[in-house]
């Protein structure tokens, strides 16, 4: 299945909003850290429902938001959630970003980067479109140290890249980005049932669920264009 087929399916069945709800719990903390100045141009890679760009317009006065997604249905849904003329959703692929060099102030991506067919090529593209001093905030829940995410690959036919923290830093640097920060953001909001309710549909033990959300959380790597 292609990115388009897989995620068009998700979008038409309403999973774009479900992802937004789940991802927001850690994404909002990462979004708050992006040094967006009023008027800045922001690109959201793999935007899904497009919530992140809209939040940056509302909270930081970002000037122009582009949400890029490989799924036309995702882009269509995202566009239907706003009538803000400064926010656009485009269909495209991470391997070839439809923007001129040095035109984007900040790139954001939540739970999407690891679907890139060639993540090194995607990083090179991000480095190309960023203005000097621009940032790439890359947030992922699927990464090597998060052992509870490893089985996700079995549930999807698109090949996913599972890097560890160091591999993210090395790849950013190889693409010419400085690594300004790397951190994990715990999800403190998800409800973790009482011990007596385990096993649940998704979790064998309470300890595993606590580890996944409260300890591992979302891996955030921040790159800065020289
Ligand atoms: C798991 S969803 C995350 C969506 C959103 N960022 C969020 O936090 O809810 C991943 C998104 O990335 C998009 N995507 C995956 N691979 C892509 C690629 N190579 N090029 C463009 N978009 C891609 C998918 O279509 C999907 O909408």
Attribute tags:
binds S-adenosylmethionine; Type 11 methyltransferase; S-adenosylmethionine-dependent methyltransferase activity; transferase
Structure overview:
The protein has 226 residues and is α/β, with parallel strands linked by helices. The chain has one domain: Rossmann fold (3-Layer(aba) Sandwich). Helices cover 35% and strands 22% of the residues. It has seven helices and seven strands, in the order H-H-E-H-E-H-E-E-H-E-H-E-H-E. The protein has a seven-stranded mixed sheet, with helices on both faces. Strand 2 (64-69), helix 4 (72-80) and strand 3 (87-91) form a beta-alpha-beta unit. Helix 2 (15-33) runs parallel beside helix 3. The chain is globular. The model has no long low-confidence stretch (mean pLDDT 97). The protein binds S-adenosylmethionine. S-adenosylmethionine is lined by residues 3, 7, 19-20, 23, 27, 46-48, 69-71, 74, 93-94, 110-112, 115-116.
Task: Chart the SSEs and their pairings.
Blueprint: H1 3-12, H2 15-33, E1 41-45, H3 51-60, E2 64-69, H4 72-80, E3 87-91, E4 104-110, H5 119-129, E5 130-140, H6 165-174, E6 178-185, H7 206-216, E7 218-224
Helix pairs in contact: 1-4, 2-3
Bound molecules: S-adenosylmethionine (SAM).
S-adenosylmethionine (SAM) binds at residues 3, 7, 19-20, 23, 27, 46-48, 69-71, 74, 93-94, 110-112, 115-116.
Unique ligands: S-adenosylmethionine
Q: Estimate the mean pLDDT confidence.
A: 97
Strand order of the largest sheet: 3-2-1-4-5-7-6
What is the structural class?
alpha/beta
- Please summarize the sheet with the most strands: 7 strands, mixed
How far apart are the first and last residues' alpha carbons, in Å?
37 Å
Per CATH, what is the topology?
A: Rossmann fold
Number of domains: 1
* Annotated CATH homologous superfamily: Vaccinia Virus protein VP39
Counting DSSP E segments of at least 2 residues, the number of strands comes to 7
Helix and strand succession?
HHEHEHEEHEHEHE
What radius of gyration results from the CA coordinates?
17 Å
**Which range does the strand content fall in?**
15-25%
Pfam families: Methyltransf_11 (PF08241)
InterPro entries: Methyltransf_11, SAM-dependent_MTases_sf
Protein name: Type 11 methyltransferase
GO molecular function: S-adenosylmethionine-dependent methyltransferase activity
